[in-house]
Amino acid sequence: MSPFLEDRFLCIGHRGASGHAPENTLKAFALALEQGADALEFDVHCAEDALVVIHDDDLARTTSGRGSVAATRLEALRSLDAGDGERIPLLEEVLDLVAGRVPLNIELKGPGTGAAVVDLLRRRGEAPEGVLLSAFDHDELAAARAAAPEYPRGALFGRLRGDPVRACRAVDAVTAHLALRTVRPELLGTLADAGLPVLVYTVNDPKQALALRDAGVRGVFTDYPDRVRAALGG
Q1: Which of 37, 108, 110, 170 is least surrounded by Cβ atoms within 10 Å, i.e. has the fewest?
Q2: pLDDT tens digits for 15-61?
Q3: Which of 228, 234, 194, 225 has the alpha carbon at shortest distance from 213?
């Protein structure tokens, strides 16, 4: 069974320990592991024939570069400073760093990422129970399901429109990922009745994390795994 489906509360490093180190870098992921994160979350874009770990589709906010990720050559992307001298990692580098120690929530960003990510995971022999694929673009989740249905999927929601249970069912999602601002007891109850564990982003207040745990949320994405882990009792 996927750790994301087990009956325990998860402290998930949001883009690694991104409150302490540059987000989505190997430094941030290594630090999150040191701080006791139960899982890691990060974002993946396609770049030429590779998969790179970066959140935005534009380079300006998190790197020394300018322009779009998709329009920049891989060699140029890899030459940029992603903070503290870190490079934009390849997905393969993150998989190598983690080496199965904790499960990974890979967020699919941009067209083609669904099929490309599961192709890489399959070629590497990555165990499905160690991975959860998520996306706001549910078409990418559908593409991942069509290419490799064994890798579980989580449906991401920002503003809630329509029926989230129906949206999850449409892509056979096993988890629902909600923005903190949208969490309401009645919504949690509806998703629980549908058998859909809820993960909430982004929760940096340890007291909020504890309240969400007590409300039945399965886990939180946090920039500060150390703080949430301490509140949970280490």
Answers
A1: 170
A2: 999 999 999 999 999 999 999 999 999 999 999 989 999 999 999 99
A3: 228
- Residue 234 clears pLDDT 90, i.e. is over it: no
- Look up residue 19 and give its DSSP letter: T
Q: What is the pLDDT of residue 1?
A: 81
Residue 20 is among the residues annotated as catalytic for this protein? no
Contact 198, 188 (CB under 8 A): yes
Nearest CA to 120 among 100, 91, 87?
Answer: 91
1 forms beta bridges with none
Among candidate residues 177, 172, 167, the one with its CA nearest the CA of residue 148 = 172
Residue 183 token pair: 């969490």
Instruction: Decide if 93 contacts 16 (C-beta within 8 A).
Output: no
- Give residue-wise pLDDT tens across range 201-210: 999 999 999 9
Find out whether 32 and 94 touch, Cβ atoms under 8 Å. Answer: no
Provide the token pair at 135: 């996306």
Residue 82 burial (C-beta neighbours within 10 Å; 0-12, 13-18, 19+): buried
Q: How many CB atoms lie within 10 A of CB 74?
A: 14
